[in-house]
């Protein structure tokens, strides 16, 4: 390995007001290396990546590229230097073809020599094993195809350092393996890759080195062969924690929710769910697996009374919920809680504090003109302590908190009503491992009380460990339901693409 780092960070610090996001960060990334960057939510990963990619300028410290000191004032300058970033939310124009997206913003842009640019793109595709149909529109691409296009786009622009931010969040195991093959090819070609993920098994499979961030500081850089998930997690959290997900065995009760031939339309008017039927019983966790956009969002929102049902029935304790909204649920005493995928858009109000967000679910049930806020403030204090919510005050706007703390507030509010049915859409997406285990424990506690849980997840290992049964959706229809103990990653992955197992 080249002894000279391709990129070197020396004493990087960055603050936002009184909050120090990065403190004296030191990090070396070498050519031909896949380097993981791990840490809890709020550890400073996003800020550091933004500094490397030119979004932010550091308050102090230096960046060296190939031994030369550099200073980026924009992402374009970082890209010109050879640093490309693939974000969780792709930066692609859906109404354009793959070819147009690749050359857009490049010298000459869409008016460049098509034959010459196609030859260059094909050369890069062959070298790294990237399969991209240049004439295909982004709107018609799968998640995996879009990611390949993003990688091809930054390689076409000369990237030598590639930053991948949670790249496998919505991938099937098969798509993840394809991405890892591409990453290994890039490593062989001398590229440096920075890999950010909360999936420990993926980090241990694909990475060479692992750097741990905690509270904005670099704690340690480890060689994969000389460490293990337990050591890594303990360093991230700052104390020893148990990595096993406890599966609670409890008595499965009566049928609580029954869905019959449910058909729901998406925002474009197409069928997002097609004649879906299933049931959940008291004290049972039913996992929902599927490629992103297979109808998970519409299913949760239809049961919660947010999306309109085209056909079919949603029966809760013998009562058909079709046509009723969430406020009617509360008035009728229907004991249901919903943790939406969009925490701040649908679940909570970012500009409000904990107290006001807890009030959102019950303020209209208060009698009289004035709302008694004291009981809610007491509940906020209780939740802050019980769930270890890190906030300066229960009156502090939640938009300034990390994703994990925001999710704890949402979960605390919904679980405090002791619901009979709990619907959860990707409740641990983007959260650090410590917060994830807090949420798994809360699910188990609810299950032990007889709550039925509908758990939409993307980590197949978690679904197999936490759930009693797993239903797999493919293109809005059920491709199978199996007991968790009979499931494997391979089986679930094949079912997610429509194969019958």
Automatic annotation (TrEMBL):
Cross-referenced PROSITE patterns: ABC_TRANSPORTER_1, ABC_TRANSPORTER_2
Residue intervals of the ABC transporter domain: 7-240, 257-500
Keyword Lipid biosynthesis included in the entry's annotation: no
UniProt cross-references to SUPFAM superfamilies, sorted A to Z: P-loop containing nucleoside triphosphate hydrolases
Topological type in the membrane: Peripheral membrane protein
GO molecular function annotations of the record: ATP binding; ATP hydrolysis activity
Cross-referenced SMART domains: AAA
Keyword tags: ATP-binding, Cell membrane, Membrane, Nucleotide-binding, Repeat, Translocase, Transport
Main location: membrane
Location(s), subcellular: Cell membrane
GO cellular component: plasma membrane
Matching Pfam families: ABC_tran (PF00005)
Superkingdom in the source lineage: Bacteria
Entry protein name: ABC transporter
Lineage per the UniProt record: Bacteria, Bacillati, Bacillota, Clostridia, Eubacteriales
């Amino acid at each position: 390995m080249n002894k000279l780092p391709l990129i070197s960070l020396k004493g990087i610090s960055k603050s936002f007001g009184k909050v120090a996001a990065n403190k004296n960060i030191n990090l070396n990334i070498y050519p031909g290396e896949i380097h993981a960057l791990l840490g809890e939510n709020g550890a400073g990963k996003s800020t550091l990546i933004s500094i490397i990619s030119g979004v932010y300028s550091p308050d102090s410290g230096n960046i060296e590229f190939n031994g030369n000191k550099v200073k980026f004032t924009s992402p374009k300058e970082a890209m010109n230097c050879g640093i490309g970033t693939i974000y969780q939310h792709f930066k692609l124009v859906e109404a354009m073809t793959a070819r147009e997206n690749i050359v857009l913003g490049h010298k000459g842009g869409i008016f460049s020599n098509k034959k010459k640019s196609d030859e260059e793109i094909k050369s890069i595709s062959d070298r790294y094993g990237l399969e991209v149909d240049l004439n295909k529109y982004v709107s018609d691409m799968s998640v995996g195809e879009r990611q390949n296009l993003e990688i091809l786009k930054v390689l076409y622009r000369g990237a030598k350092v590639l930053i991948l931010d949670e790249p496998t969040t919505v991938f099937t195991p098969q798509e993840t393996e394809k991405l890892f093959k591409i990453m290994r090819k890039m490593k062989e070609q001398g590229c440096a890759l920075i890999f950010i993920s909360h999936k420990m098994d993926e980090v241990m499979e694909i990475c060479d080195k692992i750097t741990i961030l905690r509270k904005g500081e670099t704690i340690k850089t480890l060689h994969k062969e000389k460490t293990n998930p337990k050591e890594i997690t303990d360093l991230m959290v700052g104390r020893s924690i148990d990595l096993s997900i406890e599966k609670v065995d409890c008595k499965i009760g009566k049928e609580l929710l029954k869905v019959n031939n449910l058909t729901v339309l998406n925002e474009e008017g197409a069928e997002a769910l097609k004649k879906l039927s299933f049931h959940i019983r008291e004290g049972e966790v039913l996992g929902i697996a599927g490629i992103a956009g297979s109808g998970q969002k519409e299913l949760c929102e239809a049961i919660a009374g947010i999306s309109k049902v085209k056909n079919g029935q949603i029966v809760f304790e013998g009562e058909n919920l079709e046509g009723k909204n969430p406020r009617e649920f509360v008035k009728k005493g229907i004991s249901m809680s919903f943790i939406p995928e969009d925490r701040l858009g649908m679940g909570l109000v970012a500009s409000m504090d904990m107290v006001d967000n807890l009030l959102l679910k019950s303020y209209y049930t208060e009698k009289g003109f004035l709302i008694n806020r004291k009981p809610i403030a007491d509940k906020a204090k209780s939740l802050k302590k019980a769930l270890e919510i890190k906030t300066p005050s229960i009156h502090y706007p939640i938009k300034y908190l990390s994703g994990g703390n925001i999710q704890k507030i949402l979960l605390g509010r919904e679980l405090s009503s002791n619901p009979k049915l709990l619907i959860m859409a990707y409740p641990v997406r983007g959260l650090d491992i410590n917060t994830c285990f807090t949420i798994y424990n809360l699910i188990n506690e609810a299950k032990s009380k007889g709550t039925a849980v509908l758990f939409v997840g993307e980590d197949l290992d978690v679904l197999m460990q936490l759930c009693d049964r797993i239903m797999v959706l493919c293109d809005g229809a059920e491709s199978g339901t199996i007991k968790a103990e009979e499931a494997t990653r391979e089986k679930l992955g094949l079912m997610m693409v429509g194969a019958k197992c």
